[in-house]
Amino acid sequence: MTEARDTSSEAEITDRVVIVDDDDDVRLSLANLLQSAGFSTSTFNSGESLVAASGWDGSHCLIVDVRMKGMNGIDLVRLLRERRIDTPAFILTAQCDEETRRRALRAGATGFICKPFDEDELIELIGHACEGFKR
Amino acid sequence: MRKEHLDPAEPSLGPLVNAMIEAAAVRRAQEVARILDVVSKSGTLPEVFAADPRRPDAHERETGRQISQLQRYILDEKAEIQAANRTFDVAEQELKRQLQLTEELSRTGSFRWNLKTGEDHWSDNFYRLLGYQPNDRPATTDAFLARMHPEDREPLFRQMLQATQMKEPFEVEFRLAREDGTVVSCRSRGRPEGADYYIGVLMDVSELRETEKTLRRTELALSRVSQRTEMGELAASIAHDLNQPLTSIAANAGAARRWLGRPVPDIAMARESLTCLIHDAKRAVSVLRGMQDLGTTNATSSMAFRLDEVVAEVVAASAAAADTHSALVLSDLHAGDTLVCGIPVQVQQVIYNLILNGLEAMDEVKDRQRVVKIRSAVLDNETVEVVVEDAGNGIANDTLPHIFDSFFTTKTTGMGLGLSICRSMLERHKGTLSVESEMGLGSRFRMTLPIAASGSVADQVRGGGD
Q1: CA of A36 to nearest chain B CA: how many angstroms apart?
Q2: A contacts of B258 (beta carbons < 8 Å)
Q3: Contacts A–B by Cβ distance under 8 A
Q4: Nearest to A25 among B239, B255, B283 (CB)
Q5: Which site among A28, B157, B215, B458 is 20 to 30 Å from B415 CA-CA?
Q6: Farthest-apart Cα atoms in chain A, separation
Q7: Is residue A58 helix, strand or coil?
Q8: Chain A nearest CA to B351, separation (Å)
Q9: A26 and B251 in contact by Cβ < 8 A?
Q10: Tell me: the pLDDT tens digits for B61-79?
Q11: Would you call A116 and B243 a contact, using CB atoms and an 8 Å cutoff?
């Protein structure tokens, strides 16, 4: 099952963020927040649907939930790194313990976002990551 | 002649020695019998003993020689029997030594009890197990009972008496209290032997009992770890379920603020964000309601049950814990067939919790018996009560008003939720839980429950076909 909602406008080059989360409310609210801050977003409800989809590889940043049905977020990031996709990837989780953090970073994650997050910090963090990747 | 000393139950060395003696005796006896047979039949000595007719005095000499020869035969036989007896003595000593060693190593002792005369025979190790020196006193029932733990003396005596009257085998377990103060857990097995005897063994099972205690403590610790793990998993699950809507609320609220804060406010997107936010808030509320339901009495599992039955089950289940705390749990139940309505297992959890608290409260008590007493009684037409009383050191006056508060604890472990949850459970059963305590004497927890209306619950009675 693939769900992709691309909000980018062809007329302007905005920072494009991919959100992968199996919780509809979290996924859509996160997309809403990023759009309100000027990002364009693509959303997927599973790691498998992201891997199967095309057209998102021009994105500047990924936000991946760690606890999903099927492939979990850490395995998804590991798979992307194995495929030489080096887009910054942030792990989104409520399990903000050291062990999860270590596993995420070892798999190739760029950073760690704890739920619930501070919206300003999140937007700043994602903005920096997009800028860095574009350079 | 030594045959009587050999115990037929002992190893095969005895019969072998007997066989040797018998063979030697038979050989000699056959030889003597043969000579006497010849003499009696012919009136003369056999050829080898016959007199020389050429020398008249030779007959006397020959007779003397033959008598000497017979005496030698007799002496030889005596020597042989003595040698066999020495072999037998060595073998008997060896057998005794082996039996003693076996009894020492296996921490057992054996006895033989003459029912008619009351005379006992105890093995050396039997004496030692009782804390006596081997053969330092007559083996008597009184000497045996003198070493019995005072609490076990009467029930043990009754059991033994019953078994011997019925001529049945017995297996009893009791404690021995030695003079030096040590208490030994023992098991004894015995069976009738012939018409007048009982034979049996006494075994020191202290180590086994200690191991069992350790095992029970481990099981208890494991069950607590398991409870904590379950609590941890539950907390993690609740945290996750609450985190999701809270994350969405934060994101949608932030989005709404940003849509409105744009140079040209996007009212439609802000409204959509707020609509989503309300949805998220409702989701959070439903998670909280789910949590509340976890602790609520489920009407479908509520039933009428006999209070005394479920109390008796808890008392039985607490025996292991009592043992671990070197204490006793005694019950005195007088609620009879009185029914209460609710969830039996929750009522049992409350009582078990109170018993465990009582046992733990007595850990420091050294000067009196550690007993938790459970009493039940019908107070009036509507109420039945269960009282759990310990002989601990009591609860301080300034602590007493807080002991049912959540997160209040006087223990080094636990979250201080036990009594708070107990009271909540009883309140959900329309019951009460209160406490009285006297420093230095102990505490008394009193729980009351409403009696179930018999007509409305008759069909639901637990175990109701009896």
Answers
A1: 5
A2: 33, 36-37
A3: 75
A4: B283
A5: B215
A6: 43
A7: coil
A8: 37
A9: yes
A10: 777 787 788 888 888 888 8
A11: yes
Chosen for mutation from B238, B248, B287 (greatest number of chain A CBs closer than 10 Å) is B248
Q: Which of A27, A29, A100, A114 to mutate to test the interface with B (most CBs of B within 10 A)?
A: A29
Flag whether residue A25 sits within 8 Å of chain B, measured between CB atoms.
Answer: yes
Residue-wise pLDDT for B276-292, tens only, equals: 999 899 888 888 877 76
CB spacing of A25 vs B280 below 8 angstroms: yes
Topology annotation, domain A16-134: Rossmann fold (3.40.50)
Provide block-wise average pLDDT over 10 residues at a time, chain B (466 residues): 44 62 73 70 56 58 78 83 88 88 90 86 92 89 87 84 88 87 89 90 88 67 60 71 89 94 93 92 82 56 83 82 88 91 81 88 87 94 94 87 69 58 84 91 93 56 36
Whether B90 and B109 have beta carbons less than 8 Å apart is answered as no
Each residue's pLDDT tens digit, A89-133: 999 988 788 888 899 999 999 998 988 888 899 999 999 999 998
Cβ distance B243 to A32 less than 8 Å, yes or no, reads: no
Structural domain spans, chain A = 16-134
Burial B330-348 (b: 16+ CB within 10 A, else e): ebebebeebbbbbbbebbb
Distance from the A38 Cα atom to the nearest Cα atom in chain B, whole angstroms = 10
Q: Which residue is listed with tokens 């204490």? A: B327
In B, minimum Cα distance to A92 occurs at: B247
Q: Helix or strand or coil: residue A108?
A: coil
Instruction: In whole angstroms, give the CA distance from residue A35 to residue B252.
Output: 11
The residue type of B446 is R
What is the torsion angle, in degrees rounded to the nearest 10, for the CA atoms of residue B117, residue B122, residue B126 and residue B131?
70
Contact A94 B240 (CB under 8 A): yes
Residue B247 half-sphere exposure, CB side, CA atoms within 13 Å? 26
Task: Give A-chain residues touching B244 at CB under 8 angstroms.
Answer: 23, 25-26, 94, 115
